[in-house]
Specification:
The chain is an alpha+beta fold. Helix content is about 45%, strand content about 10%. The chain has nine helices and four strands; from the N terminus they run H-H-H-H-H-E-H-H-E-H-E-H-E. Helix 3 runs antiparallel to helix 4 (about 75-80), helix 4 crosses helix 8 (about 180-195) and helix 5 (about 95-105) packs antiparallel against helix 8 (about 180-195).
């Protein structure tokens, strides 16, 4: 069959991303387009399902970078769609998902590969409730009542009715403080793994509050903190009462390139 040329205008980011993918499959761009055309003709249809992106992906965040890798790269989509959920419905995510999320936490990098953390998946709603109450007591006793009032105004609790929390205790590192970086990275792994599995989440610094109260030592014991470990962060997990929560606005002005 006589050959002819085809000129197509395409976003540079999409072209590069597609090229990388096709290379991995062993196709060049021309062969990949040929495959697509031939398959479409064979099926007399677009040979895959065409679906609209949900509202969020038509939102400002996605529009800004939609011509890049976002449309096709699942990891970037997950990072861009993670948000902090502040109202959970009661349902607990299945154990299978919780295990995957906990294992994703273990995959986090840590300074010197010390892994000075533990991953404690708490599904005991009444224990989470007790910790919430104790944390609120600690807040109420602080001289500055503004945070207490803010949380009361938001719904009255530290943990937003989350049915599950991953508690991340940490051991003191040398130099001190480095363990918090590691802990935060673990928390982000948890948040991203959860988001990608459709489990809503919130990284919760205030999860430290119950451990600062009278019942702090008791909670450490009941949760099984190893000797010498103290609370780092908690990550709340569950399903949003009202799906469709949005993350913060991106401030593109914070990016600069040098060179
Ligand atoms: C280390 C850390 C601690 C946080 N602690 C809390 C917390 O205790 N309570 C809370 O409601 N949100 C907490 N957040 C969530 C932030 O408020 C949230 O990430 C920020 O407002 C941006 O919103 P987004 O996550 O929806 O994009 C914490 C986030 C981080 C990273």
């Amino acid at each position: 069959m006589a050959q002819t040329n085809l000129t197509v205008r395409i976003d540079e980011g999409i072209k590069q991303e597609a090229e990388r993918l096709f290379n991995r499959i062993g196709l060049n761009m021309s062969s990949a387009i040929n495959v697509f055309f031939r398959q479409a003709i064979r099926e007399q249809a677009i040979p895959f399902e065409l679906r609209p992106y949900d509202d969020y992906f038509f939102g400002a965040r996605m529009k800004r970078i939609a011509h890049g890798v976002v449309m096709s790269n699942e990891t970037i989509r997950t990072i861009m769609s993670r948000y902090s959920c502040r109202a959970f419905a009661g349902e607990t995510p299945p154990d299978e998902d919780l295990r995957t999320i906990a294992e994703a936490a273990l995959a986090a990098p840590s300074g010197g590969n010390r892994q000075l953390w533990r991953i404690i998946v708490v599904k005991d709603k009444s224990l989470i409730g007790e910790m919430d109450d104790e944390g609120m007591k600690v807040l109420a006793a602080m001289p500055d009542k503004s945070m207490y009032e803010r949380i009361k105004g938001r719904g009255g609790g530290l943990f937003y009715n989350a049915p599950c929390m991953i508690v991340i205790p940490i051991a003191q590192a040398v130099p001190a403080g480095a363990e918090m970086f590691d802990c935060a990275i673990v928390a982000e792994n948890i948040a991203l793994a959860a988001t990608s599995l459709g489990v809503d989440n919130l990284i919760c610094g205030l999860a430290a509050l119950p451990f600062a109260g009278e019942k702090g030592a008791e909670f450490s014991r009941r949760l099984g903190f190893p000797e010498g470990y103290g609370i780092g962060l908690g990550v709340l997990l569950g399903y949003a009462k009202e799906p469709g929560g949005k993350p913060h606005e991106l401030d593109y002005g914070k990016i600069s390139f040098v060179g």
